[in-house]
Amino acid sequence: MTVTHESAAEASIPDAAPQPAPGATPPRRPLAARAAAELVGTAALVAVVVGSGIQATELTKDVGVQLLANSLATVFGLGVLILLLGPVSGAHFNPVVTLAEWWTGRRGGAGVTIREAAVYIPAQTAGAIAGAILADAMFGKPLVEWSTHDRSAGHLLLGEVVATAGLVLLIFGLARTDQLRFAPVAVASYIGAAYWFTSSTSFANPAVTVGRTFSDTFAGIAPGSLAGFIAMQLIGGAVGLALVALVFAPGRKAEG
């Protein structure tokens, strides 16, 4: 979930070095530090999602209340993580966002390079797996227990396309309109809403999807449903980028 911040001091100095365009990964951090931020951030995000799901099911049998608790914890946790780690890595925590940023900047624009994306995505995936295992450990569950929660139905796959397309549209729309300072609130709010308005409860993230196969709990997804979800997320990312190009097309200068 990409977010970039300038310091107040840099913004107030007219001759300061040019800053990256909104949505670009901050260039001054070493790649190792950015990869570590992506790993830690994705691990923390999955720990929040899986851990809050376990806690909710232990506190109540009402599925609606369980989903409410799970979604609220995710909203707050995601917002904090974007705010904290955005200035380091851009706070993608999501291979679709990383690939979308590479695609938009591939012709020399601001954004991650293919080499950086090749580092980010494994870090995100490893972090997601670690986060699921950590959540299971905190609640005394088996550290690795493959989920049996089948999510292969067609309407759930459609929900993933919608959820991911909306996420990409939001992030890159904020970048196009120079409003990424609102990303921690906006992205977390969108994910919280998408928990409820999409049939899939909005995974919208291939790395998180992989991580959630490792926990046979409320937030899990069966390994057999993995390929379909990731494919729909990638399609959703492409749809989101197409919508960004359509909705936020640059205006033409007036002639004369």
Automatic annotation (TrEMBL):
Pfam families: MIP (PF00230). The keyword ATP-binding does not apply. The chain crosses the membrane at residues 35-55, 67-85, 155-175, 182-198, 218-249. It is a multi-pass membrane protein. It is found in: Membrane. SUPFAM superfamilies: Aquaporin-like. Residues 1-30 are annotated as: Disordered. Keywords: Membrane, Transmembrane, Transmembrane helix, Transport. Residues 17-29 have a biased composition (Pro residues). InterPro entries: Aquaporin-like (IPR023271), Aquaporin_transptr (IPR034294), MIP (IPR000425). Belongs to the MIP/aquaporin (TC 1.A.8) family. PANTHER family: AQUAPORIN TRANSPORTER, MIP17260P. This is MIP/aquaporin family protein.
